[in-house]
């Protein structure tokens, strides 16, 4: 019985590792290099014919950032999360962070069974990625709020952007389009980005009015793109396109979660400070998170593929909010009037 539990645990470990291995490197090769053993020896471990010893287990868990406690499902009130510090004083650190994100979602996209759920206190990052300036503005506002960068937006873009980063954005955009997804928004989800643009324009962080207006123009394009996905219920017009479901919650969401389902593995991401996040594969926590998400969906209105009246009202409201901000920026003398913006 104990032998069977060990084999099952080992099999579960290797199953989880599949989502951590870079796409052009097989799991067998990765383990072979890490443990300095032959491919045949790795296969014996994969099949459960050979048990991992303590040193091998420690090396694998450390290298792939897998929690052993979470793996065995220890019944204790302690959860193990993965967290990568993100220091934006160094553009290379951010680029590496985005590469890891691309690696993770590429693995998800290649899975036989896949789905991702968002509870969107803020707009999911993937909607920003087709728009380089808008994406960088989100990163800029986060880095400014943490004190990592003190210059203006133009200087930040000059420091961060290069062809490699833009290529990562493009690949992440393409990857997200093939993953079926469910997003739960509120009528305030869009307000965060509007308030940020408003604040940083008012505070003099843009080199020109045109910079702020470009972001607004990209927001309008984003709204149109999400509206198209929502109307179709799919992320593309081609046959076999990934499903897209957008829900509108009538109450404020309490958590900013991303839950990724990949074959038999579920991963829960808790968003922190807009950009960064903590990650866990703890089964109990992931199950509780999905229960909460399913309950939130049940209490929300499905906007995509149905409820045309609700859909029109929702996207029209978002458009009007952006146009209101555009007018405030274009008439910058009025920006400081004590008006109450609709966001």
Distance between the termini: 60 Å
Rg measurement, Å = 22 Å
Count the domains.
Answer: 2
Strand content: 5-15%
| Residue-averaged pLDDT | 85
Helix fraction? 40-55%
Number of helices: 13
Tell me how many strands there are: 8
Detail the topology: elements first, then pairings.
Layout: H1 2-17, H2 27-35, H3 39-46, H4 54-63, H5 68-72, E1 82-83, H6 91-110, E2 114-119, H7 132-145, H8 153-160, H9 163-177, E3 181-185, H10 191-202, H11 209-232, E4 244-248, E5 257-262, E6 265-272, E7 276-280, H12 283-298, E8 301-302, H13 308-330
Parallel strand pairs: 2-3, 3-4
Antiparallel strand pairs: 1-7, 2-5, 4-8, 5-6, 6-7
Please characterize this protein's 3D structure.
The structure is a single chain. The protein has 343 residues and is of the alpha+beta class. It has two domains: 65 residues, Orthogonal Bundle (434 Repressor (Amino-terminal Domain)); 253 residues, no CATH class. Helices cover 52% and strands 11% of the residues. It contains 13 helices and eight strands. An eight-stranded mixed beta sheet has the order 1-7-6-5-2-3-4-8, with helices on both faces. Strand 6 and strand 7 form a beta hairpin. Helix 6 packs parallel to helix 9. The longest helix has 24 residues. It is globular. The termini are far apart. The model has no long low-confidence stretch (mean pLDDT 85).
């Amino acid at each position: 019985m104990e032998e069977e539990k060990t084999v099952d645990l080992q099999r579960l470990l290797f199953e989880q590792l599949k989502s951590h291995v870079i796409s052009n490197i097989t799991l067998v090769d990765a383990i072979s290099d890490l443990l300095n053993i032959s491919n045949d020896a790795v296969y014996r471990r994969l099949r459960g014919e050979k048990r991992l010893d303590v040193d091998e287990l420690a090396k694998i868990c450390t290298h792939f950032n897998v929690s052993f406690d979470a793996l065995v499902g220890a019944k204790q009130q302690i959860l193990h999360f993965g967290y990568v510090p993100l220091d934006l004083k160094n553009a290379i650190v951010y680029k590496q962070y985005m590469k890891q994100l691309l690696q993770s979602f590429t693995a998800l996209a290649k899975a036989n069974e896949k789905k991702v759920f968002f509870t969107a206190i803020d707009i999911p990052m993937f909607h920003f990625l087709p728009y380089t300036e808008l994406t960088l503005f989100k990163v800029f506002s986060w880095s400014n709020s943490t004190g990592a960068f003190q210059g203006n937006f133009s200087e930040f873009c000059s420091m961060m952007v290069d062809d490699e980063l833009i290529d990562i954005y493009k690949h992440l955009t393409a990857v997200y389009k093939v993953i079926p997804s469910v997003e739960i928004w509120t009528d305030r989800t869009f307000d965060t980005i509007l308030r940020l643009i408003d604040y940083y324009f008012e505070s003099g962080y843009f080199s020109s009015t045109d910079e702020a207006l470009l972001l607004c123009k990209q927001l309008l394009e984003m709204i149109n793109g999400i509206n198209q996905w929502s109307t179709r219920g799919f992320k593309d017009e081609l046959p076999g396109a990934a499903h897209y479901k957008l829900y509108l919650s009538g109450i404020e969401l309490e958590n900013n979660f991303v839950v990724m389902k990949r074959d038999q593995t579920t991963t829960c991401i808790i968003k922190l400070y807009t950009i960064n996040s903590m990650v866990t594969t703890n089964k109990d926590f992931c199950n509780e998170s999905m229960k909460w998400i399913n309950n939130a969906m049940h209490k929300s209105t499905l906007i995509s593929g149905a409820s045309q009246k609700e859909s029109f009202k929702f996207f029209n409201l978002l458009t009007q909010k952006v146009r209101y901000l555009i007018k405030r920026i274009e008439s910058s003398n009025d920006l400081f009037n004590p008006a109450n913006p609709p966001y």
